[in-house]
Design goal:
The longest helix has 25 residues. This protein has 79 residues and is mainly alpha-helical. A two-stranded antiparallel sheet has the order 1-2. 65% of the residues lie in helices and 5% in strands. The protein is elongated. Helix 1 packs across helix 3. The protein is built from 3 helices and 2 strands, in the order H-H-E-E-H.
């Protein structure tokens, strides 16, 4: 159980960082020019709904551990 929590925490941080990096830096101009009407963007910054982001990142991390990790080769399941 302890290793599961460590993997969950690491996965959560990875997916959160990846999402912030993608939306905040790499694809920012693309999103603003193409789907600005769908974004919560005002006064030069995103109006983020943090509880929704935290929930999604937690569900993605949990899903990757529950559905993907068991399919990994045996040599990787001892993490």
């Amino acid at each position: 159980m302890n290793s599961f929590l460590k993997l969950f925490g690491a996965s959560f941080l990875f997916f959160a960082a990846l999402d912030v990096l993608w939306i905040g830096l790499l694809a920012r101009q693309h999103y603003l020019s193409n789907i600005a009407s769908l974004l919560r963007y005002a006064n030069g910054s995103y109006n983020v709904v943090w509880w929704a982001g935290l929930l999604v990142w937690a569900l993605i991390a949990l899903g990757s551990l529950v559905f993907v990790l068991p399919l990994a080769p045996v040599s990787y399941t001892h993490l």
